[in-house]
Amino acid sequence: MDDMDQRLDEIARHPFRAKFHLRGRERATAEIRGSSIIRTHARELIATRLAPAQPYKDGRQTPYRGHPVFVAQHASATCCRTCLLRWHQIPKGRELTADERDHVVDVICRWITRELQPSRRP
Prior knowledge:
Layout: H1 3-12, H2 15-18, H3 24-33, H4 35-49, H5 68-75, H6 81-88, H7 98-116
Helix pairs in contact: 4-7, 5-7
């Protein structure tokens, strides 16, 4: 188990984060589209909704449902800049660097991959 898995396990122990799972339409989307398409969607969503120094509606910009990336963002504490600061030590008030964007996308995709494993099926 690496550092990212340990961090995801720690985040999953938080009661609010623990209730998020891929179900129904979001699960089907992740399974049908595959990891490369979901990663592309995650990159695009992070670039527009989270990467700017002052994201529009920060703290309320990520829906709870509608796409597997949205569910994963809440589950992995990558949904807003406040959560990024608290859980991932990525500061607010400046645009995310390329490495930080990659980290956020990697966390989201790792959570989705873990969620799709048969042993984790809700």
